[in-house]
Amino acid sequence: MSDFPFLFGVNEFTTQPWSFEEDIHRYRELGVQAVEICEVKLDPARLDQQMRLAQESGMVISAIQPSVRTFFGSAMAPDPEEPAARFRRFEQSLRTLAPYAPGTVFVTNTGAPPHGNIRRTMDETVQALRKLCPIAVELGVSLSLEPLNPTSMNTESAIWTIDQAMDIIDGVGHPAVGLCLDFWNIWQQDDVCAAIRRAGEKINVLQVSDWRTPYSPTDRLIPGDGDIPLHDMLRATADAGFRGSCTVEIFSSNVPDSLYDRDLKTVITECRDGLDKAWRTA
């Protein structure tokens, strides 16, 4: 991947069967350049030891996924229920983990709109992010808002397009919040490459995998094995000015041919090869 314009990264959801320690050691052995940490893999009793292991791995901690990362309810993290309590949990994650990863990005999303009230959810997400941005700046990190695929509407998200996410980001009006661009989530948006280019410098997290008609909401493929026009979207992301980590984020639960049942080292190698091929096509 000599001319690939991004660092090659892996999100820990991609290797759910491995422990946190296995993730760090094996990613490093496989030449992974950046790790996206998932707080749910951390043991509170050993958090300092685990985060120091990540710090000393030589990999960039490109982003962190808090255990509670939405301000409204979420199927992946249903508790606590109240938005104020969820805000406090997100802030706690910021204050606990940011000191180990200066300059990293914390990923967030709206959560599911209560009673289908998307407007309320978007408005209150703006308010929550306005409160969190100064805290992020104080801690030396930033935030990234992720629109999710329509398969996640009413369970995880109130937004499903880049433009909706940018409406919230613009409403916050603070440089500490940017856009998490996950190709699996937004590739079916109309004129997606134009939307990526419009987002420009606001893109601060890039996640990749590939798409087939899903067996479950957690059914993603190795880049290059599905329908996403990766070459066009990678080029658009580069044109937008992003030069951070291109992070593989794969979920593969409740499917008949789960990637979690395969040799995960081979999965990571194939992900790197798939991205390299897509870029060379671009």
Quick overview of this protein structure:
The chain has one domain (7-280): Divalent-metal-dependent TIM barrel enzymes (TIM Barrel, Alpha-Beta Barrel), CATH 3.20.20.150. 38% of the residues lie in helices and 14% in strands. The protein is built from 9 helices and 8 strands.
Polypeptide structure, described:
By secondary structure, the protein is an alpha/beta fold. The chain has a single domain (7-280), classed as TIM Barrel (Alpha-Beta Barrel), CATH 3.20.20. Helix content is 38%, strand content 14%. It contains nine helices and eight strands. The protein has helices at residues 20-29, 47-55, 83-97, 118-139, 162-172, 183-186, 192-199, 230-239, 264-281; strands at residues 7-11, 34-38, 60-65, 105-108, 142-145, 177-182, 203-208, 245-248. Strands 3-2-1-8-7-6-5-4 form an eight-stranded parallel beta sheet. α8 links the parallel β7 (203-208) and β8 (245-248). α4 (118-139) packs across α5 (162-172), α7 runs parallel beside α8 and α8 (230-239) packs across α9 (264-281). It starts with 6 loop residues before the first strand and ends with a helix.
Task: Sum up the structure in keywords.
single chain, 282 residues, alpha/beta, TIM Barrel, eight-stranded parallel β-sheet, 9 helices, 14% strand
**Largest beta sheet: strand ordering:** 3-2-1-8-7-6-5-4
Helix content: 25-40%
The radius of gyration computed from the alpha-carbon positions, rounded to a whole number of angstroms, is 17 Å
Which segments are poorly predicted (pLDDT under 50) over 5 or more consecutive residues? none
Q: Give a quick account of the main beta sheet: strands, pairing sense, barrel closure.
A: 8 strands, parallel
DSSP strand count: 8
CATH H-level homologous superfamily name: Divalent-metal-dependent TIM barrel enzymes
Distinct helical segment count: 9
**Any idea what the CATH architecture is?**
Alpha-Beta Barrel
Series of H and E elements: EHEHEHEHEHEHHEHEH
Mean pLDDT: 97
- The CATH C-level name is Alpha Beta
